[in-house]
Amino acid sequence: MLIRSLLVLACLLACAPTTVNSWWLLSKADTSSPTTSNSPILCKNVPGLTPQQKRMCHENPNIIKYLISGLRSALHTCEYTFQREAWNCTLTLPGVGTSPLQIASRESAYVYAISAAGVSHSLARACSKGLIDDCGCGETPQGTDPTSSTASRSPSDFVWAGCSDNVKFGNAFGRKFVDQYDRQHATEPRSQMNLHNNRVGRRLLANAMNRECKCHGVSGSCVTKTCWKVMPKFDEFAARLHEKYQLAKLVTNNDQKLFVRSTPSAGLSGRTERYVKTLDASSKQMRNELIYLDASPNYCAIDVKDRECGDKCSNICCGRGWRTTREIVDEPCHCQFVWCCEVKCKTCKKLVERNFCL
């Protein structure tokens, strides 16, 4: 199994363009074995990492395990989010880190952002669960004074307690590891784009944290309410990020800076376009927006034969038509709760239609 994994990784690296960070290949690392999942040798089996990334792998094998889990979660969630679109987050043509990510398109922007956020999400949650020795609960937010008397509080008052997700640690470690390659090439437009979108993913995740509370009291009363901060479910975050993907901004490079291309407009001077706002930390309008350098490729050029298209066949099949299959499946029905602790269901037959591209 290990030899096969090494051969796959070597093939992927050989096919990957040099402009793309090879940390993506960690998604193919073998973490199934208990003897290797927490071992410093884990990243030695992944070619193409920078010396700094290899050092971090060696020094933090347990953290890297959850970093890899976050990367895989991001890629799987991306596939689910785009399953009904022409591009379905296919990153294996011919391998992770190759087409379409070698094109600086809005699709690449989304993948980089969701991958950076996925890493942070996984690390932050692992911290709050006590799975990583180097971190614990997130910082206690500033809010209601925990020392105020119960009698003076309204029913909506609460105290900060419990264990918040440590998104600060997740973002910090993720930034240090994930951004390593692009920080070394920060004068190149593509690396500037990647770093910006990585930051957007992490920032949106931190801003999306919600308050979760629990009541304490006799017979379900809420004499005391304690609250803590949690991240949203990752699929919910991915849906929000998809909205940013749809509104991603086209940028261009000028003198090692990225500029947003404004909406074309013709004034008295006859100019049809202009460039505004550099994308640096002071550009507040762009801090939470995805950016891209290149137009998306024609995804209809990819063979979509036999791809399941659901109710979006006109878009996914690119005008090539589709076929419909019908099959009878068994599914539970007429379920009833049986005291004390059992649910009994009957089995019903259901006709299911599925559509596939020609």
Number of domains: 2
Largest sheet features = 4 strands, mixed
Distance between the termini: 36 Å
Order of helices and strands: HHHHHEHHHEEHEEEEHEE
Please report the number of helical segments: 10
Q: Which strand-content bin applies to the residues?
A: 15-25%
The counted number of beta strands is: 9
Shape: globular
Widest sheet: strand ordering: 6-5-4-7
Nearest-angstrom radius of gyration? 24 Å
Q: Mean pLDDT, as a whole number?
A: 80
The percentage helix is: 25-40%
Low-confidence stretches: 1-19, 93-99, 145-155, 265-277
Secondary structural class:
alpha/beta
Topology:
Layout: H1 2-15, H2 34-37, H3 51-59, H4 61-81, H5 106-128, E1 159-160, H6 167-178, H7 180-183, H8 189-207, E2 210-216, E3 224-230, H9 234-246, E4 249-254, E5 257-261, E6 275-278, E7 291-292, H10 313-316, E8 322-338, E9 342-357
Parallel strand pairs: 1-3, 4-7
Antiparallel strand pairs: 2-3, 4-5, 5-6, 8-9
GO molecular function: cytokine activity; frizzled binding; receptor tyrosine kinase binding
Pfam families: wnt (PF00110)
Keywords: Developmental protein, Disulfide bond, Extracellular matrix, Lipoprotein, Secreted, Signal, Wnt signaling pathway
